Amino acid sequence: MKALAIVNTELLPEECIKNKEEIDILGTTVTSGVVDITKPSFDIKNPQNDDFVLIHVDAFSCNYRDKALIVKAAIKMNSKETSARPVSFFGSDFVGTITEVGAGVTDLKIGMRVIPNCYYPYKEYEGVATGVVTNEASKGWLKLHKSKVLAIPDYMNDYVAASFSIGAQTSSSMIRRCNIKSTDKILVTSSRSNTSMFIIKSLLTEGYDVTALTTTDWSKEELDFVFPAKVIKIERGLKSWEEIDLGKFDVIFDPFYDLNLLNCIPHLNFNGRYITCGFKNQHSSFEEKMDDVRSNKFNLLMLQAMINNLYIIGNCIGTTEDLRLAISKYNPNNTPIQIDKIVDVYHGAEFLDSTYNMQSRFGKVVMTYKD
């Protein structure tokens, strides 16, 4: 099959690369190309395969976390480091079709469509790592432990499915852990991010009072997608939110603590909950002059947290039950995420550029491996 990869032109012969393209991601040149991948062998008689399945990736998408991995791989290739590989695959969300099953697999069948189950932090099987299932969804073929995928319903299309797992599992966990009351006022920061979008849509489905904070202009269609949430725009790089009339909230969801934590804390009510699942500057090249990452307000922040009995919660992905719940609540008429663009394998640069360089992007960019 044809698969998209970051390619090392110093190590991979030109004849092995089709549709070579270059794009810039925050100052790093990333070279993408299409390579041939053969179906891996899978011996169902081998006991080592008993609890595993072989999956053909039908479509995949990238998350913010993949950006740093892509940039790091490209930097290694560009600097000709000895540890650089000929190709580097990427992508952590996918939908795939099971093509082979091991003898010990009972709940999954050949032909089933599945998505990754990134359960964390609790182990479900000895020797099977928790957390993100793969960083190489673009490889096209994946051999995975049976616990690391879940089947999806027919009414979830491939494009939503390829964008679903990490955002849905993370948002489901964050909402569960905040013990939200029906009267709580909720703020979601960086609201165009994929995780924030999942959070907003899930909260609205339950009837909560949601305010979404953004630094971008939204179209009417985009505002309609999150209605009746109140969308408030602030200037990008604003050092303090004191000059805007935000008010107070009982719960604040924030995907980027290094950008927003210091400004969030003063806007929490007594016994308020702040929860975060990540940070923006996962690589030094991601840092911008307008980022407010001051540490000299830390003492004031902790004083406010102590005086007001605040809860500061860190969240990493979620449990299997969190993902099962998100799948069970999925409504094709009210999807939790928009699909911004769908491209095929021969549009690798467009896929990466749209995913990471377009501030106007609203939702996920999906690459399909289906004809």
In a few lines, what is going on in this structure?
The chain is an alpha/beta fold. The protein has helices at 64-78, 158-161, 165-177, 194-205, 220-225, 257-264, 298-307, 320-329, 348-356; strands at 2-7, 18-25, 28-36, 52-61, 87-88, 93-101, 113-116, 141-145, 149-151, 185-188, 209-214, 230-233, 249-254, 268-276, 311-314, 339-344, 364-368.
Fold and architecture overview:
- By secondary structure, the chain is of the alpha/beta class.
- The protein folds into 2 domains: about 1-165 and about 335-370, Medium-chain alcohol dehydrogenases, catalytic domain (Quinone Oxidoreductase, Chain A, domain 1, Alpha-Beta Complex), CATH 3.90.180; about 170-315, NAD(P)-binding Rossmann-like Domain (Rossmann fold), CATH 3.40.50.
- The chain contains 9 helices and 17 strands.
- The protein has helices spanning about 65-80, 160, 165-175, 195-205, 220-225, 255-265, 300-305, 320-330, 350-355; strands spanning about 1-5, 20-25, 30-35, 50-60, 85-90, 95-100, 115, 140-145, 150, 185-190, 210-215, 230-235, 250-255, 270-275, 310-315, 340-345, 365-370.
- Helix 6 (about 255-265) links the parallel strand 13 and strand 14 (about 270-275).
- Helix 3 (about 165-175) packs across helix 4 (about 195-205) and helix 3 (about 165-175) crosses helix 8 (about 320-330).
- The longest helix has 15 residues, at about 65-80.
- The chain is globular and about 60 Å long.
- The relative contact order is 0.17.
- This is Alcohol dehydrogenase.
- Pfam families: ADH_N (PF08240).
- InterPro entries: ADH-like_N (IPR013154), GroES-like_sf (IPR011032), NAD(P)-bd_dom_sf (IPR036291).
